[in-house]
Amino acid sequence: MLIGVPLETAAGETRVSVTPETAKKLKAQGHTVRVQSGAGISASVTDGAYEAAGAEITDRAGALAQRR
Fold first, then answer.
1. Beta strand 32-36 pairing with 2-5
2. CA 46 – CA 35 distance, rounded (Å)
3. CA–CA separation, 56 and 27 (whole Å)
4. Which of 30, 39, 53, 59 can pair with 23 through a Cys bridge, CB separation 3.0 to 4.6 Å?
5. 6, 58 in Cβ contact below 8 A?
6. Rounded to whole angstroms, how far apart are CA atoms 56 and 14?
7. What predicted TM-score, i.e. pTM, was given to this entire model?
8. DSSP label at 26?
């Protein structure tokens, strides 16, 4: 399954829908996790933390794209 994590666009929102730890667990289950660059910044989570967990960093279109 492809799981996309876009950047939150609601004013004042500081949460992100998937943490690096959750991304790691999803990868371990065989899923593909794509995170929009900067998605975790307001929650103090870097792109590097997602990459270390096995997620792919992409742009918004990549995070929302359907698998072909």
1. parallel
2. 11
3. 10
4. 53
5. no
6. 21
7. 0.91
8. H
Question: Would you write out the chain's pLDDT as a tens digit for each of its 68 residues?
Answer: 999 999 999 999 999 999 999 999 999 999 999 999 999 999 999 999 999 999 999 999 999 988 65
Report the distance separating Cα 61 and Cα 53, nearest Å: 21
Tokens of 48: 């590097």
Token digits of residue 11: 């004013």
Sheet bearing 56-58, strands edge to edge: 2-5, 32-36, 56-58
> Which residue has 């992409």 as its token pair?
58
